């Protein structure tokens, strides 16, 4: 039996241009990441 984890909670991705990365992942996943980030920061009172 292997010792590798069977699941994980998240991954990290390093990108040179955050705006282009958000645009790419929004198109690729069909999810509006900018809206989700804005909603989260508003809920936390950071805006």
What does this structure look like?
By secondary structure, the chain is an all-alpha fold. Helices cover 49% and strands 0% of the residues. The protein has one domain. It has helices at 18-29, 33-43. It is extended and about 40 Å long. The termini are far apart.
Number of helices: 2
Which whole number gives the mean pLDDT? 77
Termini Cα gap:
49 Å
Structural class: mainly alpha
The sequence of SSEs as H and E is HH
Total domains: 1
Topology of helices and strands:
Elements lengths: L17 H12 L3 H11 L4
Quickly describe the structure.
With 47 residues, the protein is mostly helical. The protein contains 2 helices and no strands. It has one domain.
List the main descriptive attributes of the protein structure presented here:
47 residues; mainly alpha
């Amino acid at each position: 039996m292997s010792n590798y984890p069977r699941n994980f909670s998240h991954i990290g991705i390093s990108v040179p241009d955050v705006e282009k990365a958000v645009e790419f992942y929004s198109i690729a996943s069909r999810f509006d990441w900018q809206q989700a980030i804005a909603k989260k920061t508003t809920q936390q009172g950071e805006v």
